Amino acid sequence: MDVVSGLLDGPRARGAFLLRSHLRAPWGMRIEDEAPLTIVPVLRGGAWVGPGGSDDEDAGETLAAGDVVLLRGPEHYVVADAPTTAPTVVVGPTEICRAIDGGPSPMTVFGVRSWGNDLEGETVIITGTYPLDGAVGRRLLKALPHRIALRRGDVDPVLVELLAREVTQDLQGQEAVLDRLLDLLLITCLRAWLDREDAPGWYRADADDAVRTALRLMHHDPAREWTVASLAREAGLSRAAFSRRFAALVGEPPMTYLTGWRLDLAADMLLADQSATLNSVARAVGYASPFALSAAFKRHRGVSPSDHRRRVA
Question: Rounded distance, CA 34 to CA 73, Å?
Answer without folding.
Answer: 5
